Amino acid sequence: MRNYFFALILALLLSGCGFIRSSDSNIAPPIAHKVVNTAYSQIGKKYLSGGTSPATGFDCSGLVWWAYKRNGLQVPRKAVEQAYAGAAISPHNARPGDIVVFRTSHSPNGLHTGLHAGGSMFIHSPRKGSAVRTESMEIPYWGNKLVMVRRVLQ
Q: How far apart are CA 36 and CA 116, in angstroms?
């Protein structure tokens, strides 16, 4: 009987029967990577308040809005609206394509948005006189200002 029980347990473990299922909620869908790659294609484009296109430049929320739109997806245009789009996600569960929201004093309503790019990196259009770029959310400036992460792509 003990050998039967051992064989049954071993068979269940080796068969991948689904008794223990790992969570895949933190794996970004392919469209999320496309959105991030679209935003990456704008690295170096200048910042422009109210900007929503490669031809003229981007503000923070304009870049997020444009990257989603180029992939056939809709998100709100303004940072304050992007801060409430989709579902709230713990920063520890952020994945590529999630909208990261920071509290700053350099943007309308004190909010700044960007796209999570994987790991601790995000892509954004920071401020007047700068250009679209990637930065780490772990540097003190951004790490201390991160207020939420929003998932719009399930």
A: 8
